[in-house]
Design the sequence.
């Protein structure tokens, strides 16, 4: 029994350490991760210099990434950090997924192995610098011992170890085994940033070539001998359970192997995908809706408005808010802003391959964002020792938060399906696009109610902000993700109050790219823009006056205004809007140039973006992440909404009614990166929050109508 990909003619090599390079065939007993990246001629065992650095005999260096590569660039960024301190040549560097191990590979921000919150570079920067410097010191020590010289006489540059006195020179591979047998130094000296050679330079992403030529391996590419395809029929209502089902018609379809009830629904097992789809559609299932969410989105909005009358959770309260609104000469303004459910809709829906070896161990292949948790879930559901479960992390076709589920509910479903099959044959568990769009774990519905006060001198003197929305963390006390970006806003408003209500719904929710900032930035930046307009102030200058104590906010705002030539004439029929926001310790300002497009939907022509993310590890990746965040956020604010219809069923189902931004709708984007010596921060999410309000602010200038309901394509709020 073996596992392979859909490209069986490609060569594969099994390294002595159990590392599979170049993929495509792994025996079921190997227990090896399908790890991409090293060249196909890098044969032979690798020497592990530490948990993150492996060196092959040919000098190839593989960095084991504890963070999932789902398009955001950690493989390239983390490898750059190691290569810098190792003094390696970039051509010899490779990246691979680290094995599942919450202790060795924990995210220092989370305390367990996981990718999310734009933390990959930020929490790994010092750790990976030390890993690279330690590996370098060990290689130098090995060379010094071999050549009979002192380590201080040896230099390393561009992947070559040299002793000038004797003229001796070698590559890393020649001393890898000897170095791996040595005790690592207790402390290592890191480079002065002024001496960086690789960090701060544009660099081609390590995974780009194979993703564009079709050689990259994702979970959908993984096939095993005698593998079953499994799909689960889920209820159209969240919280419903199976009351009974008739599988007679499904079982009569040629190629159907079995039908089993699992906690999440009814699973169909077939020899191929088409048959599984056909059989699933033939099931007749009676659902118990007694504990299901049956309210429509409109009813939830109404219930949220009523919720505002109840006691609230205080997030922030400074100054005298009531006094600010009752002061003489005050101009006040209020607004309600409605945010719908949003699905993540990554290009690769959720999937996993599970298989049991002859020794009773289980291998799982999937794009796992929290592999340690997934490992524990599989062990629990399948009733095996966690030590006998291996999670082999694959490249993932996007996530935007969807794969980052505490408790691993998707993996619990995949494991339940595998267990119900008898675990004798490998099983590929797959969700379709419709499963993904209708599967829940959405960005929650939020309702914002804001009051603002302008004093007689035209200054914003009061801000009273109420937010209603589910707690993503399922908390009864205040969930910081509900209010982040509001109570801690950087604007110097003397009287500020922010409160939250966190009602319970039957719809499962999850963080969506930029988490709370996706709605709070929109609410704050659009409402502030209206207040500044009412006060007769320029949107950029008015913001800068309120950011007197926030130099990095002001820095990106000034820079974006500079590159956009803010205040200069714009083409006829267009207007510009601006927004600035800090999320995940990264500061981003954006200006959008907008016109009225076909069907009355905004047409965004260009976006200028300035970002301050501390030390720029790879400017090319930073620009790409800003561009990607802008495109992702723009598609959502223009078009996207998950709506519950009458009875609580999800209305949308695929990209025809929950659509992404089309390539011809993507604006030109210009990105300026602020030079900084601050520690690096995240770039995967911070580009998203400012784009919505920047477009909405331009749209208000064009139409005279503030945007108080999203998506923009839905029109004004009723």
Sequence:
């Amino acid at each position: 029994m073996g596992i392979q990909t859909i490209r069986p003619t490609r060569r594969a090599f099994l390294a002595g350490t159990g590392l599979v390079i170049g993929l495509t065939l792994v025996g079921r007993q190997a227990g090896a991760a399908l790890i991409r990246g090293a060249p196909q001629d890098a044969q032979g065992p690798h020497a592990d210099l530490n948990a993150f650095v492996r060196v092959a005999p040919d000098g190839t260096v593989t960095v084991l990434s504890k963070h999932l590569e789902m398009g955001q660039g950690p493989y390239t960024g983390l490898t750059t950090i190691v290569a810098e301190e190792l003094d390696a040549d970039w051509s010899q560097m490779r990246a691979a997924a680290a094995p599942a191990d919450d202790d060795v590979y924990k995210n220092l921000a989370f305390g367990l192995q996981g990718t999310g919150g734009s933390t990959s570079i930020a929490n790994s920067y010092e750790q990976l610098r030390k890993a690279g410097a330690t590996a370098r010191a060990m290689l130098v020590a090995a060379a010094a011992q071999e050549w009979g010289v002192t380590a201080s006489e040896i230099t390393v540059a561009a992947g070559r170890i040299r002793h000038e006195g004797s003229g001796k020179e070698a590559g890393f591979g020649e001393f890898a085994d000897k170095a791996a047998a040595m005790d690592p130094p207790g402390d290592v000296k890191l480079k002065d940033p002024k001496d960086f050679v690789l960090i701060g330079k544009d660099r081609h992403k390590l995974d780009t070539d194979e993703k564009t030529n079709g050689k990259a391996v994702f979970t959908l590419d993984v096939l095993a001998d005698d593998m079953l395809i499994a799909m689960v029929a889920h209820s159209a209502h969240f919280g419903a359970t199976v009351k009974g089902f008739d599988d007679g018609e499904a079982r009569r379809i040629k190629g159907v192997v079995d039908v089993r009830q699992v906690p999440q629904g009814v699973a169909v097992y077939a020899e191929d995908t088409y048959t599984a789809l056909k059989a699933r559609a033939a099931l007749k299932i009676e659902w118990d809706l007694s504990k299901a969410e049956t309210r429509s989105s409109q009813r939830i909005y109404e219930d949220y408005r009523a919720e505002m009358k109840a006691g609230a959770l205080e997030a922030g309260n400074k100054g005298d808010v009531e006094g600010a609104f009752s002061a003489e000469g005050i101009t006040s303004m209020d607004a309600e802003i409605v945010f719908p459910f949003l699905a993540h809709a990554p290009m690769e829906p959720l999937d996993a391959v599970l298989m049991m070896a002859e020794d009773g161990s289980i291998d799982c292949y999937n794009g796992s964002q929290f592999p340690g948790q997934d490992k524990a879930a599989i062990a629990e559901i399948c009733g095996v020792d966690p030590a006998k479960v291996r999670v082999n992390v694959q490249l993932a076709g996007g996530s935007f938060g969807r794969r980052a589920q505490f408790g691993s509910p998707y993996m619990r479903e995949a494991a339940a399906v595998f267990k119900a099959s008898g675990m004798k044959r490998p099983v590929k568990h797959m969700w379709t696009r419709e499963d993904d769009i209708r599967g829940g774990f959405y960005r929650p519905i939020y309702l914002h109610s804001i009051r603002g006060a302008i004093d007689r001198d035209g200054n914003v003197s009061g801000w009273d902000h109420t937010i209603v929305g589910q707690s993503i963390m399922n908390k009864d006390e205040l969930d910081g993700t509900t209010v982040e970006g509001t109570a801690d806003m950087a604007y110097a408003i003397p009287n500020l109050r922010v409160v939250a209500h966190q009602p319970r719904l039957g719809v499962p929710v999850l963080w969506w790219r930029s988490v709370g900032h996706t709605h709070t930035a929109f609410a704050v930046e659009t409402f502030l823009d209206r207040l500044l307009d009412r006060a007769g102030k320029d949107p950029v200058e008015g913001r800068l006056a309120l950011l007197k104590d926030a130099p990095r906010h002001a820095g990106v705002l000034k820079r974006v205004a500079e590159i956009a030539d803010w205040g200069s004439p714009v083409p006829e029929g267009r207007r510009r809007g601006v927004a600035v926001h800090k999320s995940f310790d990264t500061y981003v300002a954006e200006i959008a140039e907008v016109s009225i497009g076909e069907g009355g939907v905004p047409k965004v022509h260009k976006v200028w973006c300035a970002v301050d993310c501390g030390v720029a590890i790879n400017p090319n990746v930073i620009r790409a992440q800003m561009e990607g965040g802008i495109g992702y956020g723009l598609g959502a604010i223009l078009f996207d909404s998950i709506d519950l219809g009458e009875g609580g069923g999800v209305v949308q189902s695929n990209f025809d009614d929950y659509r992404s931004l089309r390539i011809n709708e993507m604006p030109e984007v210009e990105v300026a990166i602020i030079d900084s010596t601050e520690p690096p921060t995240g770039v995967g999410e911070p580009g998203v929050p400012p784009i919505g309000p920047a477009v909405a602010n331009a749209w208000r200038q064009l139409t005279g109508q503030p945007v108080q309901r999203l998506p923009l394509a839905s029109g004004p709020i009723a």
